[in-house]
């Protein structure tokens, strides 16, 4: 029996991690925290020379034999120090990265921030000024709320995970596969985590885009496709996932 969290859904935001968290909570061999995102390992206010792990463990019910604690904070793969902090905390941790086409992810992220009232710019303007926003606040609020494009550069995130953890402790998944075949995806997760098969689950989609009838401008899609495509091709090849139908990798 261990208090240590053993399974992390480390990324990426707006790729279906809320739905995945809901599925994981249905497995009797997995213990969920009291909140979906603990944001422990991306908390820059903590003293990382001597981390207060008891704060993380306080999110969980008492540890039980045969039950693995998990958590899903999808900024973890993007926030530069987070994965290294997870490795220091539990070198045997198993890490899931759920990836989504970066253009779709950026649009969904922007839509969420507009809905929350934290973004007033159009999508086109927001992605134009993003570099200045991020440059002015390293690891500050803009990195959390307005990193629409930056979060979609997956190659660095995949490489960081592979440098910190052995292949056997990493599982790269694709968001559309989770949506289209949740049972098949959960079977992969069960095998990866070393737990029994999931009970039957009903398909679920948590936190759908609040503006389902809006779409990005074609010029913005073309601009982002050109920007993302080389990074995306390299990232999905390294992660060995099927992204054949992602808009970023579509022709022209």
Structure description:
With 252 residues, the chain is of the alpha/beta class. It has ten helices and five strands, in the order βαβαβαβααααβααα. It has helices spanning 17-24, 53-57, 82-89, 102-116, 123-135, 141-145, 154-164, 175-180, 182-193, 218-239, and strands at 5-11, 30-31, 68-72, 94-99, 170-174. It has a five-stranded parallel beta sheet, sandwiched between helices. α7 runs parallel beside α10. The model has no long low-confidence stretch (mean pLDDT 94).
Topology pattern, helix = H, strand = E = EHEHEHEHHHHEHHH
- Can you summarize the main beta sheet? 5 strands, parallel
Distance between the termini: 53 Å
Mean pLDDT score: 94
Shape: globular
Give the helix/strand class: alpha/beta
Rounded Rg: 18 Å
Strand order of the largest sheet: 2-3-1-4-5
What percent strand?
A: 5-15%
What is the tally of beta strands? 5
Low-confidence stretches: none
Q: If helices are DSSP runs of H or I spanning 4 or more residues, what is the number of helices?
A: 10
Helix content: 40-55%
How do you describe this structure in short?
The chain is α/β, with parallel strands linked by helices and 252 residues long. The protein is built from 10 helices and 5 strands.
Indicate the topology.
Layout (H helix, E strand, L loop, with lengths): L4 E7 L5 H8 L5 E2 L21 H5 L10 E5 L9 H8 L4 E6 L2 H15 L6 H13 L5 H5 L8 H11 L5 E5 H6 L1 H12 L24 H22 L13
Parallel strand pairs: 1-3, 1-4, 2-3, 4-5
Helix pairs in contact: 7-10
């Amino acid at each position: 029996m261990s208090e240590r969290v053993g399974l992390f859904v480390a990324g990426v935001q707006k790729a279906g991690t809320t739905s995945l968290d809901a599925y994981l909570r249905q497995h009797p061999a997995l213990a969920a925290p009291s909140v979906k995102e603990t944001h422990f390992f991306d908390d820059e206010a903590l003293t990382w020379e001597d981390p207060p792990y008891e704060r993380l463990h306080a999110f969980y019910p008492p540890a039980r034999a045969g039950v693995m604690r998990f958590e899903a904070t999808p900024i973890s793969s993007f926030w530069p120090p987070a994965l290294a902090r997870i490795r220091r905390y539990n070198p045997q941790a198993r890490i899931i990265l759920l990836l989504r086409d970066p253009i779709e992810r950026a649009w969904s992220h922007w839509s969420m921030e507009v809905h929350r009232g934290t973004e007033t710019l159009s999508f086109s303007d927001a992605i134009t000024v993003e570099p200045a926003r991020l440059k002015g606040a390293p690891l500050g609020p803009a990195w959390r709320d307005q990193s629409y494009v930056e979060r979609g550069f997956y190659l660095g995130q995949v490489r960081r995970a592979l440098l910190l953890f052995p292949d056997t402790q990493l599982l790269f998944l694709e968001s559309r596969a989770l949506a289209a075949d949740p049972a098949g995806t959960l079977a992969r997760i069960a095998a990866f985590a070393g737990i029994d098969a999931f009970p039957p689950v009903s398909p679920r989609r948590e936190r759908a885009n609040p503006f389902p009838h809006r779409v990005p401008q074609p010029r913005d899609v073309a601009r982002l496709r050109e920007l993302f495509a080389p990074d995306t091709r390299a990232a999905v090849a390294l992660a060995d996932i099927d992204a054949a139908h992602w808009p970023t990798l579509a022709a022209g």
